[in-house]
Amino acid sequence: MKIKNPKLWHKMPGGIIEGENVLYSRKYLKDVENLYKSKEISNEGKNTLMYEVYSYSEGDETQYGNLFWGLTILHPVYIEKECNMTKGHFHENRNCVEYYFGLEGEGLLLLMDEMGQMSAEKVLPGSLHYIAGNFAHRLVNIGEIPLKIGACWPTTAGHDYRAVEEMPFPYRIYKNNGKIELVER
Ligand SMILES: O=P(O)(O)OC[C@H]1O[C@H](O)[C@H](O)[C@@H](O)[C@@H]1O
């Protein structure tokens, strides 16, 4: 029997997920501009890279028990002082939980239940976050370097963005003169 070399890498804290069949996507400001309060975004600004997502899974995604391994990198971008954030979503399958863990940078994890009640947790290198299946989750970069967050979740979870569009997170996150401010919508 031959001992094999690893076929996948995720060198922590700063590396990306590397290997065959790793999925990669990115969001520019033009893809997520509706999330922000500001309506004064220039055409040039719309091409700003906001966040990148790497993910990996094997086999049939519809098969109960399969997992995604993920990495999200949110760049330190501020839109008129409002912090860079992911779209945020519930899982289509509300029974599916998720783990997030902080790798680099400084952020917030916003959690919102189905009644629209929100809480926020600090995300720091080494922090581990359990996300219950019935909570919407959004990541926010509140620092000055890229925020890198690892994640693990079931391939059958799905992304329900519509529920968050219909009932947005009730607070916007700003950084004003170095201070984080949560502003109610
Ligand atoms: O899809 P978003 O809400 O924009 O979040 C970006 C990504 O963040 C994490 O990596 C999640 O585990 C992914 O499922 C999600 O796609």
TrEMBL record:
InterPro entries membership: G6P_isomerase_prok, RmlC-like_jellyroll, RmlC_Cupin_sf
UniProt keywords, alphabetically: Gluconeogenesis, Glycolysis, Isomerase
Catalysed reaction, written as an equation: alpha-D-glucose 6-phosphate = beta-D-fructose 6-phosphate
Domain Glucose-6-phosphate isomerase prokaryote: 33-166
CDD domains, per the entry: cupin_PGI
EC number of this enzyme: 5.3.1.9
Biological or metabolic pathway of the protein: Carbohydrate degradation; glycolysis; D-glyceraldehyde 3-phosphate and glycerone phosphate from D-glucose: step 2/4
Enzyme class: isomerase
Isomerase keyword on record: yes
MF GO annotations: glucose-6-phosphate isomerase activity
Cellular component per GO, a single term: cytoplasm
A biological-process GO annotation: glycolytic process
A Pfam family recorded for this sequence: GPI
Membership in a protein family: Belongs to the archaeal-type GPI family.
Name by which UniProt lists this protein: glucose-6-phosphate isomerase
Organism: Alkalibaculum bacchi
